[in-house]
Amino acid sequence: MHRIAVIATPPVTVFDLSIPEMLFGAAEVDAAPGYEVVVCAADPGIIAGTYSIGVTVRHGLDAVDGADTVMVTGSGSRDGADPRVLAVLRHAASAGRRIASICTGAFTLAQAGLLDGRGATTYWVYSEELSRRFPTVEVQPDVLYVEDGRILTSAGLSAGIDLCLHMIRADYGAAVANAVARLAVFAPVRPGGQAQFIDSPLPAERGTSLAETREWALSRLHEPLTLSDLASHARISVRTLTRRFHAETGLSPLQWLLHQRLQRARELLETTMLPMDQVAGHSGLGSADSLRRHLVGRVGLTPSAYRATFTRSSAPSAATGDRRLDGV
C-alpha cells in the first residue's frame, strides 16, 4: 500500500487539507485500499485554520519517515515556514520521495529549496509573488498542476483535486483514477503540465455555458464530430461556439476534442488488450497510424510502448473489451 503523509502548516486551508484523504482514501485496487493517508504537523493537536476554523491533527512529523509521498497543503501564511517542516521536506526529497503541494503549499516547498530550477505553479493570485520572491523557480501561472521530476505542485482549490487524480493515475492507471473522479463527482483526469509523459498544459475551465455540450461530446468521442455538430448541440453559431469554447477551456473545440480522444485512447491502452485499430476507432482517432502519430507527438511513446509501460494486470481481453465498449 502506498503511504502518503500530508503536512498541515498553520493557518491551514481546511478545504485543501481535506482533498488528499478524500481522494486517495477512495482509491481501490483489486477491492483493496490503494493508499494509507496520514495527516501530520510539526506540533500535533489543534491546528489553526483559515476563516477561524481549526482542525485536530494527531500525528507529528515522524509520520513522514515511512511515507512514499509527502504533501504540503495550502496555508494562509506564505512565509516563515516552520524550520522542522523544511528539514523534513529536504530529507524526504533527498531520499527520493515524491513531494507535492496544493495551492500555496508551493511557498513551503520553495522555502525548502525544493523548487530551485524547477517548473512549479500555485494559486494564480499568488503566482507573481512566488516568482518575485523565488526567482530561480520557473513559475507557470496558467496550468492546473506541474510535475517536474519527483516534485509536483498544483494551483488553487479544485486544481488540488486534479493533481491528486493525476497522481492516482500515475500510480494505478486511468481506470482507478476515473473511478475516484466519479465518486467525487468531478471531471475525469485532466493533465496540467509536467516534465515527463506530458500533455500540453490545460488551463482550468473558466465557464460552464458549454458544459452540457462538452459532456455530450465526451459520450460520442468515437463519432466523427465536427464543429457544426457541436454548434448544433449548443444551439449557437460555429463562430460563437469557437469563441466561447476558447474562453471556457483555453482551447479551440478541435484541440479539446483531440485532447479528450487521446485521453480515451490512453485509458483503453492501459485497461484493455484491444488491437490498435480498435483503440483508435473507439477513441475517435480513426486509424492505428493516426493513433500512433498523435500519441508519439503527445507523450513520446508509440501505442505499443505506452501499453507495455502502463498496462495494469487486470486489463481485460480484446473480446471482453469489445463487449464492454459497444456503443461507447
Summarize this, please?
With 328 residues, the protein is of the alpha/beta class.
Structure description:
The chain is α/β, with parallel strands linked by helices and 328 residues long. It has 14 helices and 12 strands. It has helices at residues 14-24, 83-94, 105-111, 127-133, 159-172, 174-183, 211-218, 227-234, 238-249, 253-271, 276-283, 288-299, 303-310, 318-325, and strands spanning 2-7, 28-29, 32-33, 35-40, 45-47, 55-57, 69-72, 98-101, 119-120, 138-139, 145-148, 151-154. Strands 4-1-7-8-12-11 form a 6-stranded mixed beta sheet, with helices on both faces. It has a two-stranded antiparallel sheet with strand order 2-3. A hairpin with a 7-residue loop joins strand 5 (45-47) and strand 6. Helix 11 (276-283) crosses helix 12. It is globular, with a radius of gyration of 21 Å. Residues 193-204 and 313-328 have low confidence and may be disordered.
